[in-house]
Specification:
Distance between the termini: 11 Å
Strand content: under 5%
Number of domains: 1
Order of helices and strands: HHHHHHHHHHHHH
Structural class: mainly alpha
Shape: globular
Number of strands: 0
Largest sheet: none
Length: about 290
């Protein structure tokens, strides 16, 4: 694997999972719908300004724009909304991480049908090992005495469905070099626009855009906008251009252990020996998914 691709992977994993820390900072000051709405209103405005300066903001046809907006709605809107709603419904973060970690298995199972990229035996073993590593990491942290509604526990499945479909659609466009494929800056603009428009209704009419604009919230939003929504997603689509869908999806297995490490550094959360063991199993599983 090229050094540049390895750097992309490291950057993506760190920036993507820092979003959970940013959300934990931001949620006490606003609702989940409103947080995502403000975030993507700012992201859309920033990318629009960039495209205007570069004279690249243009109408590209309904079919092209609608497909890219669908990808954005699934990869940004559905993914984030389901994660934040689950946390807001008091579902333990470990449960959310565990359910969301089903995404690599879902992508591996469906990629052969959608992208015609077969998942080889090494990748299947890697996906299974990665999932076992996530279970090891999360299971010992779950408070089984805490009960939540069945609906709350099912919410993260929406994130799995959304990001899996978005990844497969994007990868298929990359493989077939379809005309709907846009340059990254234009694609991210329409993806962000779709997310902002989709979240506007619940943010305005359900949560009334209620927000406590304290410095902590502003700092969290700045990080979520620049580092996660722009940085992490840009790196993810770059990786999808270089690697097959299963290999990119396997990186999501690093979510729970990396997030726990960040929480330890940021909030002083305790790291258990089972966390270290889980990280080791996850890392070995991901190495197998990269093997051809």
């Amino acid at each position: 694997m090229k050094k540049s691709t390895i750097l992309l992977i490291v950057g993506f994993v760190l920036l993507w999972n820092s979003g959970f820390i940013g959300a934990e900072y931001g949620l006490p000051f606003t609702g989940p719908f409103t947080l995502i709405f403000w975030r993507y209103l700012a992201v859309t405005a920033l990318i629009a300004l960039y495209l205007i300066i570069r004279r690249r903001l243009k109408w590209l046809g309904l079919k092209v724009i609608s497909l890219n907006m669908l990808i954005g709605f699934l990869a940004h809107g559905v993914w984030l909304t389901c994660v934040l709603l689950a946390l807001d419904n008091k579902v333990p973060a470990g449960i959310v991480a565990l359910v969301v970690a089903l995404q690599p298995l879902a992508t591996g199972a469906l990629s052969g049908y959608v992208t015609r990229e077969e998942t080889n035996k090494y990748q299947w073993w890697g996906l299974i090992l990665g999932f076992i590593g996530v279970v090891i990491t999360v299971a010992f942290r779950i408070d089984f005495s805490s009960s939540s509604s069945v609906f709350g526990y099912l919410i993260p499945l929406g994130s799995v469905i959304g990001i899996t479909i978005a990844t497969l659609i994007q990868r298929r466009m990359e493989i077939n070099d379809e005309k709907e494929k846009l340059p990254l800056d234009q694609s991210l603009f329409y993806q962000s626009l779709a997310t902002m428009l989709a979240l506007a209704f619940p943010a305005i009419f359900v949560e009334k855009l209620a927000t406590d604009w304290v410095p902590e919230f502003i700092y969290a939003m700045t990080w979520l906008i620049l580092a996660v929504s722009l940085g992490a997603y840009l790196l993810m689509w770059r990786l999808i251009e270089r690697l097959d869908a299963t290999r990119v999806a396997s990186l999501f297995y690093l979510g729970p252990p990396v997030t726990m490490l960040m929480a330890w550094l940021t909030f002083g959360d305790k790291i258990n020996i089972t966390d270290v063991g889980g990280i080791a199993v996850v890392s070995f599983g991901i190495l197998l998914t990269q093997k051809k």
